[in-house]
């Protein structure tokens, strides 16, 4: 009787297996300290096969950033129902963000920390992800503001700065939540909603805070 042949794993499946291992190693050890030997061992393949599929450590890291950035953006987008009120849409988006970053801490480390500190090419990949999330959040806030103002033409630039601030706060809070024992995604989302919604709620109700005249500013000529 001849030897039983093992079914060959499809290339796409094998490649995802390598990326899974790479994300874990990069997330744990950082880009510089991670080795292709460790990644290959965790993936259960030879190091030459990793190079054959993904060319180099730089290309492998880029592929990890792109995959995980896309997964995070998809998670946030799919978590929001557009038929719900503005506050619920924002809540669902934040909850989806924190749930995903909590469930994939190594991936969050790769796209938020590692990618930004190891070269312009990697940083550009992370920046593209962030720009897409900011644009999505800007739209969420703008829709609520347009409804409140009854002005369908209210430009998104009116709320773009709020979206930038909110995304920046979410990023910092996700790092803190992942490093702090006992903090759930729901708690992190609630913390940011409570922090942000007072101001955003005024905006979406047609009210906004106006600063005093520039002449009244103290020490900020």
Automatic annotation (TrEMBL):
Listed GO MF terms: DNA-binding transcription factor activity; transcription cis-regulatory region binding
Taxonomic superkingdom: Bacteria
Alphabetical list of InterPro entries matching this protein: DesT_TetR_C, Homeodomain-like_sf, HTH-type_TetR-like_transc_reg, HTH_TetR
DNA-binding region: 35-54
TM segment ranges: none
Alphabetical GO biological process terms: negative regulation of DNA-templated transcription
Gene3D superfamilies (alphabetical): Tetracycline Repressor, domain 2
Keywords in alphabetical order: DNA-binding, Transcription, Transcription regulation
Name by which UniProt lists this protein: TetR family transcriptional regulator
Species per Swiss-Prot/TrEMBL record: Streptomyces griseoruber
């Amino acid at each position: 009787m001849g030897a039983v042949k093992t079914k060959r794993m499809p290339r796409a499946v094998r490649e995802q297996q390598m990326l899974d291992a790479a994300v874990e190693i990069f997330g744990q050890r950082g880009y510089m300290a991670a080795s292709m030997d460790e990644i290959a061992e965790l993936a259960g393949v030879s190091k030459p096969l990793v190079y054959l599929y993904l060319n180099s450590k730089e290309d492998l890291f880029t592929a990890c950033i792109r995959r995980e950035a896309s997964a995070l953006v998809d998670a946030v987008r799919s978590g929001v129902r557009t038929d719900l009120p503005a506050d619920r849409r924002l809540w669902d988006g934040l909850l989806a963000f924190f749930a995903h970053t909590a469930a994939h801490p190594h991936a969050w480390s790769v796209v938020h920390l590692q990618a930004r500190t190891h070269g312009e090419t990697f940083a550009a990949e992370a920046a593209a992800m962030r720009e897409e999330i900011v644009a999505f959040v800007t739209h969420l806030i703008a829709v609520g503001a347009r409804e409140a103002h009854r002005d369908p033409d209210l430009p998104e630039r009116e709320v773009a700065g709020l979206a930038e601030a909110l995304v920046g706060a979410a990023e910092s809070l996700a790092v803190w939540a992942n490093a702090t024992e006992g903090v759930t995604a729901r708690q992190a989302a609630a913390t940011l909603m409570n922090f942000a919604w007072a101001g955003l709620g005024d905006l979406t109700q047609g009210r906004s805070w106006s600063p005093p005249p520039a002449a009244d500013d103290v020490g900020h000529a």
